[in-house]
Specification:
The structure holds 2 protein chains of 2 kinds. In chain A, helix 4 packs across helix 16. Chain A is an all-alpha fold. Chain A has a single domain (84-299), classed as MetI-like (MetI-like fold), CATH 1.10.3720.10. The longest helix of chain A has 29 residues, at 163-191. Chain A has a two-stranded antiparallel sheet with strand order 1-2. Chain A has 16 helices and 2 strands. Chain B has 19 helices and 19 strands. Chain B has a 5-stranded mixed β-sheet. A 4-stranded mixed β-sheet of chain B has the order 8-11-7-12. Chain B is globular. The chains are: A mainly alpha, B alpha/beta. Chain A binds chain B through residues 46, 48, 50-53, 58-64, 72-74, 136, 140-142, 156, 158, 160-161, 247-250, 252-253, 264, 267-270, 294, 297, and chain B through 1, 23-27, 29-31, 94, 98, 101-102, 106, 116-117, 120, 123-126, 228, 282-284, 286-289, 365, 495, 499-500, 503, 506-507, 510-511, 514, 516, 532-533.
Chain lengths: 307, 562
């Protein structure tokens, strides 16, 4: 190896990495074209958007669309519901993949472990259109759950039309669908833990529980923090597919979220209002991500955080 | 945080603040300006010898249709135009159409289903003004048909005193919608006539629930699974028997009121609450937001009544694909009968209908520079409205080539049976082949190039005697009750309030039926409905009703004794 290569490179050695850069270009173009350029369209949140006048020709209305949003009956309600559902999802569901990964990690039989893993992440690939149909059937008046309830001599319970039960079903089925998929990342970081640590622990007389507590869990913390920060960004989106396919008029009060609200506005061609709602959602999400990251870096003295 | 990052954040934040504070505040929106038409209609000349090119986005649901059908070519030849049809199904209409319009691709002729859509088109500058006088001048016969069968449609395309489209009528839609009973079940539980009153319906549902009509020894049947997938369907037949349309504007003592706030609505809700409490209704009905369950439980023999099933072709026991045929597939002994509207307290049958006013055809803004095209299309509409032959050709194709009329059912030389009435001829009788030709059978939706149906004028003659008799027996026009303004969304502020109000009302009513909310809280519902924008809607609705009288005078609607 030459001396030159050992010297820390000044700037980015473009020429040497041309191959890699050219491979990355399509992706960069993709993000520019489909994620950054459309952001310019956000200006219609501050305009009275008239399609024939175009985005730039439409008249400015300042904050009027936002005033309309927050003075309406439904939007503040939708924000409240979105936050409630998201926070519940986070509180109840955040540790599910961690626990699943830890449990799987303890399984020694490779075949058994792999099939369990496949079974648990399979639901991730099912569309909510199908899953909702299945859950509506399972929890419906004539479904298996109510058949058991009836056997117990209790009157059938209308789970899906009850506000509390509906939200509970929403969250539990959401966890069921996502936990297996979420565990994959944790499994990856588990496999990265050095076996030396465990060997040392065994020599010190630590049992499996102590090993989990003092080695495995602390090793997972950086991954958990990263995923937590990322999921904070999604706190303003409470899972549109699932809710849209499962809700009914009776739980509208607790299940109408920002996304379903935006969809209703879009169908009415009220693009400015829908954009304003979407922008609010995005800005809050970004503030949360950035804030959480700063916080994580602060308390870990710059060691943790996404960036 | 490193210094660089800090600087970066500060720069980003201050730029944001700067940009946001620079956003001009101009709270007076000027988009919805109603400008007078720049067209000098008096002097518009349409030279019939000049070939015109017209792009045409017609009525939706023409899936599988293609350009160049016989019907299209026939019209092109007769009116010396080149038609470029844009076919859309309901999904494309909702999702693809806005993109098409934003992209600047505005068709010359555009069909819209409701007044709200017309106002969205107007607001976005896609359509031009079409003064009533112009319609009157070029379409005298057409105007008479609208006046006769759907005069409310005159207000569908009106905004701030100007008109923006040609209304269409569907003279078949002013018949009340009806439900369907399992007659074999009714007989089994000791009832031998179709229920005619609320009390009889109650009793029938009760016996179907508790007297084991399917004879399997289990109490596993429900009376009915109400379809709540659309506000126009939710318990509509029961409300109608109380003379009220809960999700429509109605007239009471010369004023326009909202049906859902009337005392009769409360009475009907009390009755429905009782039915639910007695266990007569499928408890899963509130989950059925797509209306699929309501249908499948009836087909599977879990309930004995369904609403709406209201065309003769649903009731064909020997057709496997018909509704009747599907029920027979599960239970060969099933017998279905239509249930005409229930009688109200005065013994009068009442049922909700859509009314004759149908939709709106609009003209693209670009035609302000080619008003001759508008005139040509209006002349075409007039010609179709005034000629039985052309009307039928535009709907079904050429008689003798695409279809034939058989006074009685018989067997064709090729061994196929011919139904009574209009039959499509081979090869057009193959499934979807008729649709490819933009042909629609009578009694269905309106046709692509002429989205109006004048049933009593032309169609009834070509309906089979059996169907005619069926409609007369089960769905008489005079039993129908429709929205007093045709469609509630003619009210200017409906876009802002109506959708949310309808949602709120639907939720509240279902809660009351289920007992999650006391029916006696009806008054607080009324107050809340009014507070959430309902008062604005009602005020404007009354204003619209005053305006509609002026339009009626203008277009010559005769004051008939109603």
């Amino acid at each position: 190896m030459s001396r030159k290569a050992n010297r820390p490179a000044r700037g980015i050695p473009y020429r040497r990495n041309l191959g890699l850069i050219s491979m990355a270009l399509p992706l960069v173009a993709f993000f520019l074209l489909f994620h950054y350029v459309p952001m310019l369209g956000l200006v219609i949140a501050f305009k009275d958007y008239v399609m024939s006048d175009g985005i730039f020709g439409s008249a400015w209305v300042g904050w009027e669309n936002f005033v309309r949003l927050f003075s309406s009956e439904d939007f503040p309600h939708a924000v409240r519901n979105t936050l409630m559902i998201s926070v519940l999802r986070l509180v109840c569901g955040f540790f599910a993949p961690v626990i699943l990964a830890l449990l799987l990690n303890e399984v020694r039989l490779a075949g058994y472990k792999r099939s369990i893993q496949t079974l648990t992440y399979l639901p991730h690939f099912f569309s909510w259109v199908i899953l909702a149909g299945i859950f509506l059937m399972i929890f419906g008046g004539g479904g298996p759950v109510n058949s058991v309830v009836k056997l117990l001599g209790v009157h059938p319970v209308s789970f899906l039309t009850d506000n509390v039960a509906f939200i509970a079903i929403l969250i539990v089925t959401g966890i069921w669908q996502g936990a297996g998929w979420g565990a994959i990342i944790y499994m990856a970081s588990l496999s990265g833990i050095s076996p030396d640590l465990y060997e040392a622990a065994v020599i010190d007389g630590a049992n499996r529980w102590k090993q989990t507590l003092h080695i495995t869990l602390p090793s997972l913390v950086p991954t958990m923090i990263t995923l937590f920060i990322l999921s904070l960004g999604g706190i303003m989106t409470a899972g549109f597919d699932q809710i849209y396919n499962m809700y009914n008029p009776l739980v509208f009060n607790v299940a109408d979220i920002i996304d379903t609200y935006v969809l209703r506005r879009l169908m009415g061609l009220d693009l400015s209002l829908a954009t304003a709602a979407g922008m609010f959602q995005g800005v809050v999400g970004m503030v949360l991500i950035v804030g959480a990251n700063i916080f994580a870096r602060k308390i870990s003295k710059g060691e943790q955080g996404v960036w | 945080m490193r210094l660089g990052e800090k600087v970066f954040l500060v720069v980003v934040a201050s730029t944001l603040v700067l940009v946001l504070s620079l956003i001009p505040t101009n709270p007076k929106s000027q988009a919805m300006l109603s400008k007078p038409s720049p067209v000098d209609w008096e002097n518009v000349k349409d030279d019939p010898a000049r070939k015109l090119h017209v792009s045409w986005q017609g009525i939706i649901n023409q899936t599988g249709a293609a350009e160049g059908s016989w019907i299209e070519r026939n019209l092109e030849k007769r009116f010396n135009i080149e038609l470029a049809p844009v076919f859309m199904d309901a999904n494309a209409y909702q999702k693809r159409r806005p993109l098409m319009l934003i992209g600047g691709d505005v068709p010359d002729v555009m069909w819209s289903g409701d007044p709200l859509a017309v106002r969205a088109n107007l607001r976005n500058g896609f359509i031009m003004e079409l003064p009533y006088e112009v319609i009157l001048k070029h379409c005298p016969t057409y105007v008479k048909m609208v006046n006769k069968y759907g005069k409310e449609a005159w207000i569908y395309a009106q905004y701030q005193g100007r008109n923006y489209g040609l209304p269409t009528v569907n003279a078949g839609a002013d018949r009340p919608r009806i439900g369907c009973w399992r007659m074999d079940w009714l007989r089994k539980v000791g009832i031998d006539k179709v229920p005619e009153t609320v009390e009889e319906m109650h009793e029938a549902l009760r016996r179907i629930r508790y007297n084991d009509p399917d004879g399997n020894g289990q109490q596993d049947t429900y009376g009915w699974s109400p379809n709540i997938s659309h506000w126009s369907l939710a318990f509509a037949e029961v409300f109608a028997a109380y003379d009220v349309l809960p999700f429509d504007l109605m007239e009471r003592d010369g004023k326009v009121v909202w049906g859902g706030l009337q005392p009769e609505t409360k009475e009907a809700l009390r009755e429905l609450r009782k039915w639910y409490q007695e266990g007569l209704l499928d408890p899963d009905f509130p989950l059925d937001t797509q209306g699929r369950n309501a249908e499948s439980v009836f087909i599977n023999g879990k309930v004995g009544y369904i609403y709406p099933i209201d065309f003769p072709w649903y009731y064909q026991p020997d057709e496997k694909d018909s509704f009747y045929g599907k029920v027979r597939g599960f239970d060969p002994s099933a017998e279905l009968v239509p249930g005409p509207p229930l009688r109200d307290r005065n013994g009068q049958r009442r049922g909700r209908s859509w009314g004759g006013g149908a939709h709106i055809m609009q003209f693209g803004k670009q035609l302000e520079h080619q008003p001759g095209k508008v005139v040509r299309v209006l002349k075409m509409m007039e010609a179709i409205a005034g000629s039985e032959e052309l009307y039928l050709e535009t709907r079904n194709g050429k008689r003798g080539v695409h279809w034939n009329y058989n006074p009685t059912a018989d067997v064709r030389p090729d061994g196929k049976t011919q139904k009574e009435g209009i039959n499509l001829l081979p090869p057009y009788d193959e499934k979807n082949r008729g649709r490819e030709n933009s042909a629609e059978l009578l009694g269905g939706t309106c046709s692509f190039f002429f989205p109006s149906s004048f049933e009593p004028v032309y169609d009834e003659k070509f309906m089979s005697a059996t169907d005619r008799e069926w409609l007369h027996r089960n769905r008489r026009r005079e039993w129908g009750m429709a929205n007093v303004l045709g469609k509630s969304d003619v009210v200017p502020s409906s876009g802002r309030y109506l959708g949310d109000l309808v949602n709120y009302q639907m939720t509240t009513f279902i809660e009351m039926v289920l007992g999650k909310r006391d029916v006696e809280e009806f008054d607080s519902f009324v107050a809340e409905w009014r507070r959430r924008g309902g008062d604005v809607i009602l005020e404007q609705a009354n204003e619209m009703s005053r305006q509609i009288q002026k339009i009626y005078d203008l277009v010559g609607v005769k004051k008939e004794a109603e």
